[in-house]
Amino acid sequence: DEKPLKLTASLFLALRDLRDEMRSFLLWTDGICINQNNDKEKGAQVQLMGRIYVEASNTIIYLGPADRDGKENRYLLSIRRGDGLPDPDTLCSIFQKEWFKRVWVVQEL
């Protein structure tokens, strides 16, 4: 509808951190693709979320800006590669992120 988007601070940071100046890619985000001011639309879209995640080629969970020393990011990459055992302190700090406090995140995993 060509109206300016009002982004949450978290969504703004995610879009900023995920952008790639070398290539374009398609990104679906509920904060943009679902009218957050329309409860009927949100309810209908929530019913489709399972299908959306199943059919996605990739799912990105933005946990916020990286910690100062980058330890959390390195840890997440090591998990992805299957390197070593988890570091309990780093794992705890990751699970303290705001994203894990939302009720509906289970379907996103």
Kindly report the average pLDDT value: 78
Largest sheet: none
Helix content: 40-55%
Ends apart, CA distance between termini: 32 Å
Whole-number total of structural domains: 2
Supply the helix-strand structural class.
Answer: mainly alpha
Number of strands: 0
Strand content: under 5%
The sequence of SSEs as H and E is HHHHHH
Please give the count of helices: 6
What is the CA-based Rg, rounded?
Answer: 16 Å
The 3D shape can be described as: globular
| Low-pLDDT segments | none
Topology of helices and strands:
Layout: H1 9-18, H2 30-33, H3 39-55, H4 71-81, H5 88-95, H6 105-108
Organism: Hyaloscypha variabilis (strain UAMH 11265 / GT02V1 / F)
Protein name: Heterokaryon incompatibility domain-containing protein
Domain Heterokaryon incompatibility: 3-108
Describe the structure in your own words.
It comes from Hyaloscypha variabilis (strain UAMH 11265 / GT02V1 / F) (Meliniomyces variabilis). The protein has 109 residues and is an all-alpha fold. The chain is built from 6 helices and no strands. The longest helix has 17 residues, at 39-55. It is globular and about 45 Å long. The relative contact order is 0.12.
Outline of this structure?
This protein has about 110 residues and is mainly α. It contains six helices and no strands.
